[in-house]
Structure formats: C-alpha cells, structure tokens
Amino acid sequence: MKRFGALALVVVLAAALAAPSELAAQQRRLVTIASGWVVGVYYPLAGAMSRIAYKAKDLNVRATVESSGASVANAQLIGTGDADFALLQNDIAYYAASGRTLGAFKDKPVKNMGGIFTIYPELVHIVAASSANVKSVRDLKGKRVVLGPQGSGTEQNALQILEAYGIKEADLAKAERIDAAAAGDQLKDGRVDAAFFTTGLGSAVIVDAFISGRVTLVSVGGAEGDAIRKAYPFYTLEKIPANTYKGQESVVTTPAVMAMMVARAELPEDLVYRFTKAIFDDLKQFHAAHAAAKHLTLETALNGMPIKLHPGAEKFYKEKGVLK
Ligand code: GLU
Q1: What is the pTM of this model?
Q2: Contact between 39 and 204 (Cβ < 8 Å)
Q3: Ligand 1: which of 146, 150, 199, 290 to mutate, judged by most atoms within 8 Å of the beta carbon?
Q4: Atom 6 in ligand 1: residue holding the nearest Cα
Q5: CA of 154 relative to ligand 1 center, distance in Å
Q6: Within a domain: residue 9?
Q7: pLDDT tens, 33-49?
C-alpha cells in the first residue's frame, strides 16, 4: 500500500512538473492501426499514416502501429474493438462485412467496419525456389508450399488459386502458414518449394528473395485465370512487368485485389474526418512511404471500395466533391 502511495505521488508530481507541451501530448487519444508484415507494404504505410496523424494540428491522436498476419486478422481486430484503424484487402473486407465466402466470417460478420480509401493493387506473388522447377501452379502438387501467414488474406487467395487448378491442401506435401519474413528465408534456402504473398509491387520480402538469385515467379492466367475471376469477382488479372525484381526476366500475369484502409465504426465521425483529411493534406509524405503508396489519389480513393464508408470519410469526400 505504502509503495503504491509513493508511486501515485511520483506520478502526480511528474504530471505537475511536465511542460505544457508534454501535457498536451499526454492528452492525445491513443489509437491503434492494425497493419501487416514488417517486410510488406502495409507496415511502412501505417507508419507514415501514424506520423502524419501525429503532426496534424487539429487531430490530437497518437497512433501505434501493430504488425499482424494481415487482412483476416485485421478485420477480426476491428470486430472485437482491438484495433481502431486497419489496412486490409478489399476482397477480405467484403467477405468480413457480409459474412460470405470465408469460414472465418460465416455467422460472425464484422458489422462495424467503415471504409476510408482504397490504395493500390496487391498482386498475388507466387514465388518458387528455382531448384523446385515449378513452371505452373499445377506443379505445386506434392510440393512444400507456404500458403501465407496465419490470418492473412494471402492464405485465402492461395487456397482459391489452388482450387482453380483442382489442387487441394491435401495434395501438397506440406502446407505451411508462417510469417512472411520466415517464408522468404525458407524459399531462399530451399526449405520450402513455393510461397504465396498478396502484396504491392516492390514489397520488401519479394525484393529480398530475388536478390538471392534463387527464386522465380509463377503465372496464373488462361482458363484458370478466367475461372478464378468468375468464382471470386474481386480479382482482376494484373501483370508484374519483367525486371520488377532483380533477375526476373519475363512478365508474369497474376490475380490482384486492392489494398484499403478502414476504421472502426464506433470512432467519432470528427476523428475519422480529420484523419482522412490529414492524409490527403499530406499526400507527399504518404507517397514517400513506398512506391505502392503513390497510387493513392483523391480521384481513385473510392475505386473498388467494397463496404460502406465511415461517416467521417464520407463527410470528407462530400466536402471535396468526390461524392454527392
Ligand atoms: N495483403 C497481405 C495479406 O493480407 C498483407 C500484405 C502486406 O503486409 O503488405 O495477406
């Protein structure tokens, strides 16, 4: 008891002695941004948003960035109120909000997720160890494959793509769910034959894997590409241009979705309005976070938006005339 009393006194004294600016900082509302892989694109983007939010004069928040498996986990964190903002894929956001398609959300839709903006295409990078001699997704049968991190959108995309080729998880020698950095390392030293990563072009984990000179990319196109778009309409087919990565000699076609930002519906309209405004007022800093971030513009911010907007974001777009 005594020690508690002393501790409380120290805290009170410290508060009394704190400079006014420090006091203001203490009053900042703490919010969390659920991001993704430290070696991916969400994480640096969330970091940039946190810095922009901190600097914004009329937005008194301190945003902490959490790394995670990503999309599926992030939707769940919004649902339980454990995250205030999150980055995730637009396909997963739709499945989460509607309770459709994915087992993770059946009978437990995430009702409290409000859209803020969509940002850039995330392409399914199917990276194979050169030694594994994988020329087509079909060749993954009997191989050791990383489907994606636990709780990722990637894992779902991997299962959907394998399905289009008639491959079930049981047809693989090993199906792993491990974090993206570990997947990159295991590809480089041939401990796994292939790994899926749904992420922006130039994602650090892919850049790094190609620097090893020991990996290749696998295409998804033709009849299977069409089938997958029909079965899961969020996909578009995009190209990874030759030489996007070191030693990547030919262009690769692959399904893609959009990265997007959401907020918990319970967050005050004014806070989300100011947050959204702060990002668009400082697009330069946002764009500097990663090449993929440059896709964010006011004109394209609602392309592929699969869920209803957070009222704060809606107010911002109306004010800008982007929405009627
Ligand atoms: N889209 C990825 C996923 O949900 C995360 C990508 C990233 O962190 O850059 O699986």
Answers
A1: 0.92
A2: yes
A3: 199
A4: 199
A5: 7
A6: no
A7: 999 999 999 999 999 99
Q: Has residue 281 been placed in a domain?
A: yes
**Containing domain of residue 288, as a range?**
28-120+258-319
Domain boundary, last residue among 257, 274, 309: 257
Residues of the chain with pLDDT under 50: 1-18
Ligand 1 center from residue 206 Cα (angstroms):
12
Residue 145 CA to ligand 1 centre (angstroms): 17
Residue 50 near ligand 1, beta carbon < 6 Å: no
Instruction: Say yes or no: 246 and 135 in one domain.
Output: yes
Picking from 239, 257, 275, the residue at the C-terminal end of a domain is 257
Examine the domain organization and report whether 134 and 249 are in the same domain.
yes
**Structural domain count of the chain:** 2
Q: Say if residue 63 is in the same domain as residue 77.
A: yes
Q: What average pLDDT is seen over the chain?
A: 93
Nearest-atom index, ligand 1, CA of 152:
10
Domain CATH number, residue 230: 3.40.190.10
Q: How far is the CA of 105 from the centre of ligand 1 (A)?
A: 18
Q: What is the pLDDT of residue 23?
A: 54
Is residue 88, in this structure, part of any structural domain at all?
Answer: yes
